[in-house]
From TrEMBL:
Ribosomal protein among keywords: no
Principal location listed in the UniProt entry: mitochondrion
Membrane topology designation: Single-pass membrane protein
Organism whose genome encodes this protein: Eutrema salsugineum
Keyword Electron transport: yes
One Gene Ontology CC term in the entry: respiratory chain complex III
Protein name per the record: Cytochrome b-c1 complex subunit 8
Family as reported in the entry's similarity comment: Belongs to the UQCRQ/QCR8 family.
InterPro entries: Cyt_b-c1_8-plants, Cyt_bc1_su8_sf
Gene Ontology BP, a term: mitochondrial electron transport, ubiquinol to cytochrome c
This protein's UniProt keywords: Electron transport, Membrane, Mitochondrion, Mitochondrion inner membrane, Respiratory chain, Transmembrane, Transmembrane helix, Transport
Subcellular location: Mitochondrion inner membrane
Length: 72
């Protein structure tokens, strides 16, 4: 009972670098998809964006006040 070699066949899948139609479904009707997601989840969108916008505006205000402090 010795070991006998077994022939294996490998299947290789590859995409052509010249094929550009692979991701067209992702970009199709993108503005409509975004509008649908936001209109369904507008409360979550506000709760996500409010702290981000608030923090950014505070940082900009603080930086501007720090620059103006050195004038006088």
């Amino acid at each position: 009972m010795g070991k006998q070699p077994v022939k294996l066949k490998a299947v290789v899948y590859a995409l052509s670098p010249f094929q550009q139609k692979i991701m067209t479904g992702l970009w199709k009707d993108l503005p409509e998809k975004i509008h649908h997601k936001v209109s369904e989840n507008w409360i979550s969108t506000i709760l996500l964006l409010a702290p981000v916008v608030g923090t950014y505006s505070y940082a900009q205000y603080y930086q501007e006040q720090e620059k103006l402090e050195h004038r006088f």
